[in-house]
Amino acid sequence: MADWMMFVGTYTRSGGSKGIYVYRMDGQSGSMTQVHVEEGISNPSFLAIHPNQKYLYAVAEVSESSGVPGGAIVSYAIDVSSGKLTRLNQQSTGGPGPCHVAIDATGKFAIVANYSGGSICVLPINEDGSLDSSSQFIQHRGGTKVNPQRQEKAHAHSVTISPDNRFAVVADLGMDQVRVYELDLNAGKLNYVESSSFTAAPGAGPRHFEFHPNGRYAYGINELGCTVTAYKYAAATGKLTEINTRSTLPKNWDGSNTTADVHVTSDGRFVYGSNRGHNTLAIFRIRETDGGIETAGEQSTGGKTPRNFAIHPEGKYLYAANQDSDSIIQFELNSATGDLVPVGREIRCPMPVCLKFMPLG
Predict the structure, then answer these.
(1) Which one, of 289, 274, 271, lies nearest residue 212 by Cα?
(2) What is the DSSP code (8-state) at residue 287?
(3) CA angle 32, 43, 266 (to 5 degrees)
(4) N or C: which end of the chain has fewer CB within 10 A?
């Protein structure tokens, strides 16, 4: 197995984190060695790597940047030999609290979700990896108010590009909607496809979303409802249809909890969702017959508030980022059962909230 780089986005707001942390991963053992820390960015809470693996993009989850209202997104060049990041430029995301960014498969556009502002922003990517100013800004409006504190208005929480690069799926927690947009790569714009979009259960709070490797199914995690929904996905139209929904929590749990991240294994057999409060990863088996999910177990993340986690692309390891205990815990993933086994390795990192892998060589 080749070595890899792991880029870690963090929250700097507490003063403990300095920015983006870069680790070199040993391909055999999965052990990590810190090789770089990129300072000078506030709250780089979500990262994305360009398809050519030369550039990295990080949101700055703030309400004002460089004296301009709204958050920002910063572009970096990646030195693959050292892991060092070189800042290229910064652009406004047009709204406060950017929390997620996706790069389309051609590498021509970055699409950002602004949580606090309830909006999305499309930014062209130049040939040198730098960002151009926004080519489109879309404001979501209205909240279901089922949860008065969290759904008082729209809160766009993530952007996921379809496997064929034709659609962008935006989960909006405040609106209880999973909205489908058609990508217009010529104009650098998104066109809303209402007939293909999905309205979640009232108060569910859709947050993150990921496609199955076969492109026929998808899985979304609902932050407020503490559930994972399995969807049938029609590639021709982008339409999402619910297959089934399962709780991320055991039946006897009565404490406070919100969910955060969701990921599917590369073989398409299991899906995992993170619980903040219960501090576990919920494990679901994916039915081969129709893509639906069945509860298969749970695993403690060995820390507090697992906002984000990542399955290594080669499928052997899973890493859970525990935001409030400043740790990333490594697990061995059993591809037959979906079980996660702690390997006894803890990576100390201040307020980790996003993990991204890039192969070396």
Answers:
(1) 271
(2) P
(3) 45
(4) C
